[in-house]
């Protein structure tokens, strides 16, 4: 779909955002509401595929049932000229996979905040009996303010819909699938909990726990290999936080958290000092599922022999006293039979009499309608010869929206026919509209929101623009209506301008300056000068000077010695060497891997995601000149096409420079004779 195309006379395409296994996603402008939206369009090659169309429609139905600020909203669903499309909330940011890559390592407190937002969304889905079944970082979006949104409910299923369960095919991304899904069993809420544990592992380590050459090998590891320890990767990770991963990813679903809320509550306290000496989590049950082999139980149709055998079994189970065929029942049994028939007939007469009396007196009974939909309750009331009276709506955390809370007169009460029955109907959980609190005093806002029933959390951050105690950011959208009982609001609050008193950097190496700068959060800039006072590689001077104060995040200029200045014939000369690094397209084996896992022959929508990074080349450039050593990496980059790079050299007439280029661990370019005259 080209830029400028107007879909259905309303959505003007701005550009492509991405593409998946079944659909393409575009950025568009809603010409009526004047807002940016994301348009998900079913691909041409899937428009005649009933499975694809059903999955596409299911995503819309699933998402529209959910009301949570951390779930991407669905604005519109339609079909035009044979094109099925969804119009969704546009999230200006990146997916969690890229966020982890760009921001790793992520502070533990931020990890907890990210997971809490994800858990909030998944809990809302589970409350509506919707299992996502494909939770992964690629389906989790992070906006510019770090606000989380979950998308892609295309393969989600209602927990009660047994007919939707695919017992012989695997749907989802293999790196995040639970063991029971890999075996082809029905996904449950605890399957999503397993995926959440894998996601938490990846946020903490920057990688997935199980990898392999094929999808099959990864699947076997999920089913049989114990979860690797995140503390082996980073011993600083609290044991309590690792325990959350271990419990969430237990092989047996019964050993996992019973709900997402339980996981979130445990993770929320994992950084508390009270849990500092917590023991490592071990699976309480004996059957962990680690040694269980994946197997398919055979299905044996019922044959004629099987029917005969069943009949024979029934014969064998006949009680000794039972009358055999052809023999007359004794007199005692005959009397008992007529006694039972007479009793039943009498009971029927009694019931008929009660009905006739009730009819004659004009009485009826208020039906049982609590918990039913409002429309169903009204139908039951009318069927009972009663009239629907007033309908009052009240918020409820226990009764779903549009369902009856109570009635007046009460259920099963005898009343005259035609009596009005008043209803109290649930309007869903109590929702409170929240505003934009940026710039306001945190304590006042906190008190106001806590009075409404919200839980409020604070994160401190220095700021030169906001006075202390003023709110810098909030993790929810202004104007949203939120449920106080289930929503924790997080604010970033200003601590004001933090002043740093600079220490004397003179004589330090560059590495020591960088280490000190990271610790006190200042930004150093480096230049090189000749010096007779400091040896080569040591700091000559700084600006601002030692013991002067600067703001946290401020800049410090640092001059590093080149050593004593030599005669004019040995003066440094600067020049550039321009090279082009060729891009190497990686071979992909994902197609064969996926097909080997899915006996149905239906490939996963997200096979490309599972091989994330396979189309990128990691390049390391080493450079040697007057200021650089060949033993240190001069530049690291990731390329997806042939890329031109300019290498700056500083050499005297007597010096020889060098460079080498390493692509994906292999040296592809080298020059050991770089001089000013040669370039």
UniProtKB/TrEMBL annotation:
Origin superkingdom: Bacteria
Keywords per UniProt: ATP-binding, Kinase, Membrane, Nucleotide-binding, Serine/threonine-protein kinase, Transferase, Transmembrane, Transmembrane helix
Region Disordered, residue ranges: 300-332, 590-613
Keyword Coiled coil tagged: no
Reactions catalysed, as given in the entry: L-seryl-[protein] + ATP = O-phospho-L-seryl-[protein] + ADP + H(+); L-threonyl-[protein] + ATP = O-phospho-L-threonyl-[protein] + ADP + H(+)
Keyword ATP-binding found: yes
Bias (Polar residues) ranges: 302-311
Record-annotated membrane-spanning stretches: 338-360
Residues in PASTA domain copies: 360-427, 428-495, 496-562
SUPFAM superfamilies: Protein kinase-like (PK-like) (SSF56112)
Ranges in coiled-coil conformation: none
A family per Pfam: Pkinase
GO MF term set: ATP binding; protein serine kinase activity; protein serine/threonine kinase activity
EC number of the protein: 2.7.11.1
InterPro entries the UniProt entry points to: Kinase-like_dom_sf (IPR011009), PASTA_dom (IPR005543), Prot_kinase_dom (IPR000719), Protein_kinase_ATP_BS (IPR017441), Ser/Thr_kinase_AS (IPR008271)
Binding positions for ATP per the UniProt entry: 40
Bias (Low complexity) ranges: 590-602
CDD domains associated with the record: PASTA_pknB, STKc_PknB_like
Cross-referenced PROSITE patterns: PASTA (PS51178), PROTEIN_KINASE_ATP (PS00107), PROTEIN_KINASE_DOM (PS50011), PROTEIN_KINASE_ST (PS00108)
Domain Protein kinase: start-end pairs: 11-271
Protein name: non-specific serine/threonine protein kinase
